[in-house]
Amino acid sequence: MVNGWDIDVDGVEFVTGLVGLAMQDMSKDVEAYGTDVQSAAASAGTVSGFYCGPAPTGAVGAALALFAEGTAQDVAMLAARAAKSVNGAHEATGYYILGDEEMAAQAQHRALAAPEVDLPGRGDGGGHK
Q1: % of the chain exceeding 90 in pLDDT
Q2: Helix, strand or coil, per DSSP, at residue 105
Q3: Which residues of 60-81 are buried (b: 16+ CB within 10 A; e: fewer)?
Q4: Mean of the pLDDT values across residues 40-53?
């Protein structure tokens, strides 16, 4: 056992399992968020007159698109932060089991750092790290 640490390994596994389930639900909600915003923008209509072809984007639709674009980074950060926290807890607990306090502390420190989020089309396109 690592000096100065008192981790309930089964408790960590239980809690991270619950967080994993919540992350799955959140993933579905994020997908629905994007679809719902697009649907709302298309349904908002416009104040223009008659038109041929695709409907022009109205003020409400444009505002929804700007809102979705402005919040995309925050939504992506939620998922990245949760994943990094769960992975860090698993890694630190593994080192704790091995009795390596220094490596456990390093894993914990890495997990606490803010994740890097790269949205597709806004950088190297690699997703979250």
Answers
A1: 12
A2: helix
A3: ebeebeeebeeebeebbeebbe
A4: 66
Calculate mean pLDDT across residues 1-9: 71
- HSE-up of 45 (CA within 13 Å, CB side)? 4
First to last CA, the chain: 31
Q: How far is CA 59 from CA 23, 51, 66, 71, in A?
A: 34, 16, 11, 18
DSSP 14-63: HHHHHHHHHHHHHHHHHHHHHHHHHHHHHHT--S----SSSPPP-HHHHH
Q: Quickly state the pLDDT bin for 18 (edges 50, 70, 90).
A: very high
- Give the integer Cα–Cα distance in Å for 49 and 67: 26
101 close to 3: Cβ distance less than 8 angstroms: yes
The residue assigned the tokens 């399992």 is 17
